[in-house]
């Protein structure tokens, strides 16, 4: 027992010592970050409203009035609250919007090595649900708004902040969509800074690329359906709904949408080619020069991440068929998750799938449609502050634009005419943070450097 008490006391001392070693400025930020991570905002057991109110308290203490900072809770969804705030600028330009979501994926304590809703600093990492996705950026933005207010920072361009709910969990009300429809004045902006891109570390832990996200694929859900009169299973017939659907799915498994590169993905492959090197690097350079290069496309398609940004993809994710074990199936349905390149409609994908299936008896239906958007342009106004901050923090590290095959809340803003860019300056090795998974984490150094980077670019944009 004495040994256990000593171990616990030593661990507590270690955590305290790490916080004590920080400058007062960083210690204050760490406290905000710790508080936010330790508020459960999962859909199953938590509340975004409680987190939003806790962060509002920091803004109030810094001097933000009711007119400049509020928690907005959708009617009928008491746990889906959103925090909005503004540091008003001196010019007539609208604003730069700082966007981060505060809801997190569910986390079962029994599955985790550490309590998912206790911030643990260990071996150079912060552990906790949301430690990376997306409470890191949310805490940075709250801390930034507090410091700027206390400094009496007078931006030329207004700085708006929205910490929203519902990004991770579709049963919740999406905060960005709700604010755009009901309180648009709080998110009206010339452009927005969002999650979606950080930086890439090499195997030795050194930065090799700083990423800026510009654009994302659109998720459309499609179903394939075969219907049949059915009958008694003791008298099987060649025409079987399950077999026909299975044959169509086999043809679909061999089908690929054509390679299409836009300005962002072409630049990504071009700039990553010398970093990656070897056969893959050569294929990247080749595809950037000529997207119709079949050999280069075949090489890159072996990597799921590269394949996903080169083309639209549709993959079977669910199958349901038959109504009884002793009856021929009357219906067989497959669900496809389609990630569609910007510039293409759900109807175009529907037509391409019908052609690939080559069977008029397989009905292709659009089950869930999301409005498409246009990738925001990487203008000098956007890139110059990034370049200046990167040159100071990570001299010589190339800036490489990316497009996500997944989705962020940026889709709502882009559709609303507010160009949205993913940039955090928080570096990691691929897959290291394990966002959405067990023992989610972020490097301590990466979080603090990301804070410095975001502070620098926001001040630059606001001047």
- In order across it, which strands form the biggest sheet? 1-2-6-3-7-17
Strand runs, count: 19
Q: Biggest β-sheet, characterized? A: 6 strands, mixed
Helices and strands: which structural class? Answer: alpha/beta
Helix content: 25-40%
Distance between the termini: 59 Å
Q: So what's the overall shape?
A: globular
Q: For this structure, what is the CATH class of the domain at 15-196 and 408-462?
A: Alpha Beta
Mean pLDDT: 94
What is the radius of gyration computed over CA atoms, rounded to a whole number of angstroms? 25 Å
Estimated share of beta-strand residues: 15-25%
CATH fold type of the domain at 15-196 and 408-462: Aminopeptidase
CATH architecture of the domain at 15-196 and 408-462: 3-Layer(aba) Sandwich
CATH superfamily of the domain at 15-196 and 408-462: Zn peptidases
Separate helix tally: 14
Which regions are unreliable across 5 or more consecutive residues at pLDDT < 50? 1-17
Tag the structure with descriptive keywords.
463 residues; alpha/beta; Aminopeptidase; 14 helices; 38% helix
Short account of what is shown:
The chain is an alpha/beta fold and 463 residues long. It has 14 helices and 19 strands.
Describe the 3D structure.
The chain has 463 residues and is α/β, with parallel strands linked by helices. Among the domains are: 237 residues, 3-Layer(aba) Sandwich (Aminopeptidase), CATH 3.40.630.10; 45 residues, no CATH class. It is 38% helix and 22% strand. The chain contains 14 helices and 19 strands. The strands form 5 sheets. The protein has a 6-stranded mixed sheet with strand order 1-2-6-3-7-17. A hairpin with a 2-residue loop joins strand 4 and strand 5. Helix 3 runs parallel beside helix 4, helix 4 packs across helix 14 and helix 12 packs across helix 14. It is globular and about 80 Å long. The N terminus is likely disordered.
């Amino acid at each position: 027992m004495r040994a256990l008490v000593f171990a616990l006391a030593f661990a507590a001392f270690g955590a305290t010592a790490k916080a004590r070693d920080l400058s007062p400025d960083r210690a204050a930020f760490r406290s905000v970050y710790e508080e936010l991570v330790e508020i459960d905002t999962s859909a199953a057991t938590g509340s975004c409203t409680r987190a939003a109110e806790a962060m509002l308290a920091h803004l109030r203490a810094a001097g933000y009035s009711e007119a400049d900072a509020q928690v907005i809770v959708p009617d009928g969804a008491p746990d889906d609250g959103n925090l909005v705030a503004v540091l008003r600028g001196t010019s007539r330009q609208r604003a730069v919007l700082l966007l981060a979501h505060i809801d997190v994926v569910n986390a079962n304590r029994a599955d985790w090595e550490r309590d998912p809703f206790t911030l643990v600093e260990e071996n150079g990492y912060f552990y906790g649900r949301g430690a990376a996705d997306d409470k890191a950026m949310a805490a940075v933005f709250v801390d930034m708004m507090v410091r700027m207010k206390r400094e009496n920072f007078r931006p030329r361009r207004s700085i708006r902040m929205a910490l929203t709910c519902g990004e991770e969990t579709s049963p919740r009300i999406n905060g960005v969509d709700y604010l755009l429809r009901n309180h648009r004045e709080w998110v009206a902006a010339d452009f927005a800074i969002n999650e979606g891109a950080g930086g890439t570390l090499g195997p030795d832990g050194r930065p090799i690329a700083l990423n800026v996200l510009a654009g994302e694929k659109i998720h459309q859900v499609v179903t394939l359906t075969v219907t049949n009169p059915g009958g008694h299973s003791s008298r099987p017939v060649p025409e079987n709904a399950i077999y026909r659907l299975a044959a169509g799915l086999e043809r679909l498994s061999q089908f690929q949408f054509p390679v299409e590169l836009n300005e962002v993905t072409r630049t990504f492959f071009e700039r990553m080619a010398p970093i990656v090197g070897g056969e893959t690097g050569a294929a990247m350079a080749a595809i950037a020069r000529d997207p119709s290069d079949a050999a280069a496309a075949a090489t890159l398609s072996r990597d799921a991440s590269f394949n996903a940004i080169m083309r639209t993809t549709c993959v079977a994710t669910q199958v349901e068929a038959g109504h009884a074990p002793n009856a021929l199936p009357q219906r067989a349905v497959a669900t496809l998750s389609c990630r569609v390149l910007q510039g293409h409609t759900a109807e175009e994908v529907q037509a391409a799938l019908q052609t690939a299936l080559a069977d008029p008896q397989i009905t292709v239906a659009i089950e869930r449609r999301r409005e498409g958007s246009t990738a925001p342009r990487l203008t000098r106004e956007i890139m110059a502050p990034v370049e200046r901050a990167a040159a100071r923090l990570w001299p010589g590290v190339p800036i490489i634009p990316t497009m996500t095959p997944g989705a962020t809340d940026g889709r709502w803003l882009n559709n609303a005419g507010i160009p949205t860019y993913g940039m955090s300056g928080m570096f990691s090795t691929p897959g290291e943070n394990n966002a959405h998974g067990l023992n989610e984490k972020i490097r301590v150094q990466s979080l603090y450097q990301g804070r410095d980077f975001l502070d620098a670019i926001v001040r630059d944009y606001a001047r």
